[in-house]
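Bit of a strange request maybe. I'm writing a small parser for structure token strings and I need a real example to test against, not something I typed by hand. Could someone generate the tokens for this chain?
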Amino acid sequence: MRFPQIDPVFLSIGPLQFRWYGLMYVLAFAATYLILRSEVRRKQLQLTADDVADLVFFGAMGVVLGGRLGYILFYKFPFYLAHPLQVFAVWEGGMSFHGGFLGVVIAFVIYSRRKQIPFFTLIDMAALCAPVGLGLGRIGNFINGELYGRQTDVPWGIIFPGGGNLPRHPSQLYEAFLEGLVLFFIIRLVSRRSPVTGVAGWTFVAGYGLFRFIVEFFRQPDDHLGLLVSFLSMGQLLSFPMFLLGSIMAFRLYRSSPQQ
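Reply from user aminoacidic:
Good idea to test on real output. This should exercise your parser:
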């Protein structure tokens, strides 16, 4: 099937253009605020609505700055080294989840020290929010017709603009399902079942690492990088350590619980 003709701009007001991908960011941050408010009440934390808004702001800065810096360092460092002014051309795209993840970690370390709240308490709450943002972001990628998959002959293969005349895996939707919907319900179940602080956060790290590693086998590698170590992509090289570390830490914390 051919890629549906979706205008990336969903609303135009004079010279202003509002894009679907930007809308996904707005929806993700709004959902994050609502989820955090709910978790603050459930955990009975001494945080006001303004405190939660500040936490969302810290997280947003971590996502944007870390995501941009991660893309520069992990994916196109030689290019940006030769063209340093392009670092600021964010409208041309170029974000990395792994960089954004590290950015959020740093932002939450700062916030936890300011508010005197345990770091992993914040991370456990963020673990519920992250899949929502990931799922919405991948839907935005699909609407933009970017980050498509490898060529395939499966019945649901899609011919993407810019992807040649052969059908490809809609890998953005695979990621939206696994890293978004499935991972959200896994984290929600863990956060409700385990009383141990940190288990939900590390479960997210492990779950994302596993799902991203799997989907990368269907996703088209970056043209300027290709496959590394013969058959692995950069995304897989960055995700597999997350799966290992998250699995080990979640298991250790769960086993150390006095309830076990």
